[in-house]
Specification:
The complex is a heterodimer of chains A (about 550) and B (about 240). With about 550 residues, chain A is α/β, with parallel strands linked by helices. Helix content of chain A is about 30%, strand content about 15%. Chain A has a domain at about 80-405 and about 495-535: 3-Layer(aba) Sandwich (Alkaline Phosphatase, subunit A), CATH 3.40.720.10. Chain B has a single domain (about 30-215), classed as outer membrane lipoprotein receptor (LolB), chain A. Helices cover about 15% and strands about 35% of the residues of chain B. Chain B has helices at about 95-100, 110, 180-190, 205-215, and strands spanning about 30-40, 45-55, 55-60, 65-70, 80-85, 90-95, 125, 135-140, 145-150, 155-165, 165-175, 195. The chains are: A alpha/beta (about 550), B alpha+beta (about 240). Bound molecules: zinc ion. Zinc ion binds near residues 87, 360, 364 and 493 of chain A. Chain A: It is a lipid-anchor; GPI-anchor.
Chain lengths: ~550, ~240
Amino acid sequence: MEMKKLALVMATIAALGLAGCNDGDDGVAGTPGADGANGNNGTDGRDFTAVNQWYLAGQSTVAKAAESTISDPAGKAKNVILFVGDGMGVSTLTAARIFEGQQQGKSGEENRLSFETFPYSGLVKTYSSNQQTPDSAPTMSAIVTGAKTKDGMLSITDDAVRGDCASGQGHEMVSALALAEMAGMSTGVVSTARLTHATPAATYAHSVERNWEADSNMPAAAITAGCTDIASQLIDFPYGDGIEVALGGGRTYFMPNTENDPEYGSAGRRNDGRDLTSEWTSKHAGSSYVWNLDQFMSVDLATTKHLLGLFENSHMQYEADRSDDSAGEPSLAQMTSRALDMLKQNDKGYFLMVEGGRIDHAHHAGNAARALEDTVALSEAVRVAMEKAGPDTLILVTADHSHVFTIAGYPVRGNPILGLVRSVDENGEAAKTLSVDANGMPYTTLGYANGPGFGFGSSPVNMASARPDLNLYDVTDVDYRQEATVPLGSETHAGEDVAVYAMGPGAQLVTGSVEQNMLFHVMNYAADLEARAEANQP
Amino acid sequence: MFYKALMLLALGSLSAHGASVCPATAPAGAWGLEYQVSASQSGAEPRQVQLLRRGAQTALYSPEHQMAEWWHFEDPKRPGFSRVFDQQQRRIDYYMGDLRALGVQAQQEEVESFAARHLLGQLTKQGSSPCEHAERYQGEINGVSYDLLWSPVLAAPLAIVTRKGEVERRWQADKLLGKDAVNARFATWQRYRETDFADIGDMENDPFLAKMINQGFIEHREHAVYNDQGQPLATGHSH
Ligand SMILES: [Zn+2]
């Protein structure tokens, strides 16, 4: 069974021409550029380095980079941690960095999110095999399987047709997580979204339709044709000894419709009568299922070998609302921390995927404050990993796609990132009045190219023909929705590149501008996943 | 600006119509009230709105639009909300963070009382009522005159007549719905295909949701006594 699946990924990768050809995607470095870091003074007698801290800091960074000539051999990484901020585009990172800095009482721009201190970074092209601007299904599939696919499909090659069960059969692509299980490593999936949502699902499930999260979401024909829902694939995961840690939301997708949710009383979403949470505990010896913070924190990690935590009936709370959850929810950092404590116990290493899943949702709602708070929460989770993971661990931080989120105007340094634009005067000092548009109206630094638009109200589309007078609103309120140029009920994803940051063995491969599916190959090279999987077969 | 200003209208006396529904006790389990909503000068036919109650659940249903707004107040500080579309047999579920991001702050008693509860303390209770089991309140708030017939056993209004200048509007309960009808409707809605509001942005290939994305979530708030900010129209409160 396992070997057959393994053979499949090899065949798939070979068929797609993604292995063994020298098309520039193989990580071979180009001709080095001239050394521009010697810091020599100019020839006009001025010492540029004398007083300017900006100059000195930049010079020192370049000098350090020039000293590094790392070329880690394949397989040097024992462990891999992959962080994905769903919808965490570059503008989101910039705004979140300033937001976090300002929360700490600083001006903000100089702040760095935890992963912005990583030694390597690059840009990632996110288009899917059939769309310029993608959704999370093909992008995460690319990241964890090494091949791009069509929108809406999870870890199935793009020969398949979305929603057509039969077209996907035999076209499953094996993920990095599956390879890690085959290699005898421990594995984990952590998300603030539903565990059955596209990003986490791509690591363990195959589906021609990302919305087939429970059997009740599937057409009868697909079930008859032999396709299975995503939640059941997490429990029935066939590789190795199964996933060790699965933490996130989506509880009711694992519960039969004859049972009611313990927190909300709503019915389970399974028509097949399966209670996947009890199947989890009966399938794995030494396993636990938890659904609230107290239960989660009291799990004995030394004796628990398989842990399933489902903390909401659907997505977990936004970080901004988490403290108000009635049953109590762990933060992304807490989930990451305890997941690592469990996974680290395996001498053969581990693969962990952590998703900040709700950045995307807040952006879709046109609500920048929640998107930024969830981005900072992801940064905190990465900080935990930086502390807990040893030097034998490759850590990648990236996003699946961006959003049409903008940082605009010429606000003075330190201007509240959620606030109205206040520029500088002719002397470069903070202006006494707000910047205004052609109508004399102020505007926020943050905005969206499309979406629900301005306001607090429940009617999401700004139908008014003129811009509102934002002087009358608290635009820094967590519930404020930024203005949007094109009125849509939901803001859309964006098509530009996202960033990727890397530290640990193999991190040097992350540089330049790459295709998204290349990230799998970085992880595979760094941890030698395929070779370890093959070597571990009986 | 979002304010469709208080479209609160005027009308004759309550008593002519006030007693068509007037229960002595609240039906056990579930019940509903069907209101005729009419405006004095619109020339339009009266429209129906139903208030459906079962335990901590309350729905406002518009038979005309075949749409409902369905609230769950099992935990009053963290209400659940669904928007129901009968024609398409679809439901959009909103969770706490969604409601907050949308700035919706509905109060349980206001939803359950058809947005009339807050009026009781501001109006004057009258000595006589057109209905034995109901209390009558009258008064003026912010230039709007009110005539309210309140059922203490249902904790809901049986009639509200508002008048401002020439404009008059009437909400008149004319039918009490039994528990079987209400339970059946809730059960039907429960079976509809549901989508989390948070997921809509990722589902533009769904024709029903794409329509919503392109048009926005068109509100039909006039069918209820709420404005499009989710606030009871009668309070006149706004950001
Ligand atoms: Zn999205």
